[in-house]
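PROTOCOL LOG
Step 1. Enter all chains and additional molecules of the complex.
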Amino acid sequence: MTEVQPSKEVAEYTEVHRHPEPKSFLWKYIFSVDHKVIGIQYMLLAVVAVFVGMALSLLVRLRLVCPECSYPLLGTFFPVGAPEGVMTPEFYLAMLTMHGTVMVFMVLTTAPQGGFGNYFLPIQIGAADMAFPRLNMLSFWTTFVSFLLLMAAFVVEGGAPMSGWTGYPPLSALPEATVQGIGQDLWLASIAVFCIASLLGALNFIVTTLDLRAKGLTMMRMPLTCWTWFVTAILGLLAFGVLLAAGVLLLMDRNVGTSFFVPAGLVVSDKVIDHSGGSPILWQHLFWFFGHPEVYIAILPGMGVTSHVLSTFARKTVFGYRAMVYAIAAIGGLGFVVWGHHMFVSGMSPYSAFVFSVLTMCIGVPSAIKTFNWIGTMWGGKIRFTSPMLYSIGFVSLFVSGGLSGIFLGQPTVDLYFHDTYFVVAHFHLIMGVAAIFGMFAGMTFWFPKMFGRMMNEPLSKIHFWITFVGVYAIFGPMHYLGMLPHPRRYAEITGVDYLAANGAAELQMFVTVAAVLTVLAQFIFLYNFVKSIFAGKECREENPWEATTLEWAIPSPPPHDNFAGKVPHVYRGAYDFSLKGAKRDFAMQCNDDKAVFGEPATQASGD
Amino acid sequence: MPATLSPSEAPPVTATGGGDFVTLPPSQEGDWHNPSGDPVVQRYKLGVWIGMGGILMFFAALTSAMIVRQGLSGDWVPVAVPPVLYVSTLVLLVSSFTVERARREAVAGNSAGLRRWMNASAGVGLAFLAGQLLGWQELAERGLYVASNPANSFYYVLTAGHGLHLLGGIAVMGYVWVRIRAGKPWPTRLAVVEATALYWHFLDVLWIYILGLLVFWR
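Step 2. Run joint prediction.
Step 3. Record the structure below.
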């Protein structure tokens, strides 16, 4: 490893953050251009959204197990959707739609990338801020507007849309098809605005990664977290434009009378619809061309955090760093050519289905590489079972469990049977929903001391981990069995179906609902721990409490306004140099040169 | 166990680019990614290049939707492109030259020239948009509205989508004009102008593509 030493002229000059630290509340905490504040804004938005999403999922569960039960409070807020507190089937569909939309867009897309990525990408690459700080602020506030638009759908006449988070036409395209007013329009407007916000954010992440890395920090020395944020940004850049185009066309179908997605001769409520020749399948192609990369947008940052945390707490370098990088890139690339596997039941040509199926199976290869390397990283390590480590191991478990059912669903012949059943619900919740959420838990508990200068309560985190870990398996495990019966999904209630009754479907649904209620309640442990620790957690002014290697652990906790106090670190080594032979400590930070790590003379070259 | 190094062990610190607030000339800034050239200009231009990827995907999606929709059913009635579009295309090509001229004035540090040519570009850009509106008017006079026929629908969506992106460029030109009028030091001026010029040329090429699509894929 040879590093060009900076010239005297350069070494003497230290960069100054030209934005002085703002003093007023408005500019410091609301319209801040500091990537750290914006990151926390994204996280708080996601926290609000995740509790909205969980509340909606509970309504869905309650309606499933007791269609006739009355919840008077609900009747007060939603007199149309829940007259006298009894949820209508339409209300069930609306809650289902909003649950999916809120969770996918406002939680899984915002928190891992906009939240953690915003906060830690610049610090981990040794930059003072994102490449375009004002654009960064614009991204967040645009996302916030999108969230408000989505929430507004609850209160307008006709209520929230009921066409699913995938917004399939013709249900979503025809106001006549449902009893709805402008709820669906607000939903579409929200998604369109969200697309714009995400595109701006993606642009910023890519330029930041390419252009602001500290001297010595080559791409192949970047922490895997940075790699996943980088690849996620590329996916976002290429996917959200397509969804935006589709959303614009669907808005026009609804409001201007065009016929992009509405077929001719459609009869709705005994009336022939005045549209001609469009195709709902066209929407499905455009939607899933975005939708599949979106799955990786949600999960990739969780993979990065997991790799990072497993290595740190196993005190071992990441097993197969290069393979991990190539696997991240391969997953991202293949993610763009498998969208058809969401559409096996759309009546597509078996030849197309075959191609999509083979490509889908190909994703198993990089996924397996990652899983193998996570286990390899832990293998023989001196594991410290901290709460972030537990969440990361939980991530690996959920990723494997959710991934295995994906291999079934990637086969067109099997998918035809399973597609509209709870099997799919189980699959995508495990792999995309809770695995990604466990990645966020890991990230939050891991970086909390850096962000707030205090520790989260470890015993509370561990209690929360175990309840949630067992809870999500109790919720989604039985759904595989329900799917095999097969119990169809999306139905508010199913009565008089003998094979379901004979196989205990109702009892199992009740079990799942109880598990869901308990698991949701357990999330308040985390919320309590999070809020309390911000203000009254054990103080941790130590820069590097976890004895980690990356740059964020070389600066004070919480980091100063300009991260590196007007300086930029020099990076000498890869991101995961743990347990080096002959080193003074069991880890070497990226900003430590060989002399600092081994003393004189340098005895071992560092890993790259 | 000490987590970080004592000052004597600390590695030498060097300077690289920060946020978009870097103002130093490249010789002092020492950007190791771009040893030659102004790093801020490079960063802004890189932003535009990356942004092009997103915009291209937007129009690629519309293109593929158009091709698929055309083959779906027999309701596709090709729309003859209004002749005024050829005139506005020429106008847009002219604006690429004026923008390039503005960029060169900015490189030379000539504020008056920059302002003049930037304003000219914005004016020519507005003239192009006026041409597009005339095109819409002509279609409307032929009785071809946005929902009359899927071919018209795509005509309106593609031209409107391109026009909105162009309006964004004109807004930045207006911003340049305001900043130069204010007369205060503006360290990122060259970067903004370079990025605007690159974006404008991109929209120019994008329009040629859209026109080709409308003319040849009817």
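Step 4. Note key features.
Confidence is low (pLDDT under 50) at residues 1-17 of chain A.
The domain at 339-540 of chain A is CATH 1.20.210.10 (Cytochrome C Oxidase; Chain A).
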